[in-house]
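User: Structure with SN-glycerol-3-phosphate, C-alpha cells only please.
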Amino acid sequence: MKFFVDTADLDEIAEAASWGALAGVTTNPTLYAKIGGSLSGFPAHIQRICALVDGPVSAEATKTTRQELIAEGRELAALAPNVVVKLVMGAEGLAACRALADAGIGVNMTLVFSVPQALLAARAGARYISPFVGRFDDIAEDGIAQLGEIVDALSNYDWQNVGVAGQGLEVIAASIRSAQHVTQAALIGADIATVPFAVLKKCIEHPLTAQGIQAFEKDWEKVCQV
Ligand code: G3P
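Assistant:
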C-alpha cells in the first residue's frame, strides 16, 4: 500500500516527503480552508505542493455542472504535470470524469461510500476512487467493512483500459483517522491510504520502539564509559 498525505499544509507535506516514503498528496476545500487559503491563491498553492512531491496531487474542482467541472478540471490539470483532478461523486462528477479521462486527465472520484458508486466511477474512467472510512465510523457504521466490499467488488474486473489509457485504477482509503485504520486498509488490499499528517506521524511510532531506543541509549552510555 502506498502512502499519501491528506493535507494542504506545505510544512506538513515537506516534512512527510522528507521521510522518503510519500507517494502523493490529497487536498480538498476543507483542508485548504483550514490553512487560511484564498481563492486567488489556490492555483499557486497547488503548484507549490506539486513541486514538493514526486507523485500525484489531488486538487478538487468545486463547480457544479459537468461543463463547468470539465473546464475547471482542465485548468487544474494545466497547473502541473502531477495534478489529479478531484471530483465529487454524482451525475455531474461522473460525466465530467469521463470527459477528463478521455482527454488524458487523471481523476480522483471522492465522497465514495458504496460499491455501486465505486463501480460507476471506475466505469466513468476514474484513475483513483476514494472510499471514506472514518465518516462511516462517525455515524456508527463500519467504514473498514465498506472499504473491503469496494476493494473486493472492483477486484472482480479488469480496469486497465477503462480510464486514461494504460494507467489503471487505484483505490485510495480516505477519511483515515488512526494507525489502526491504516493497518486495516492495508490488510484489505487498498492500493493507497491518504492519511492526515498527525496520523502519519503516529504510524511511525510504537511504544516498544520508544522503549527499545531508551534501552539502547542507556546501554551505549555504559559502552562509552568503558
Ligand atoms: O481526502 C478527503 C478525506 O480523507 C477527508 O477525510 O477526515 O474529513 O473525513 P475526513
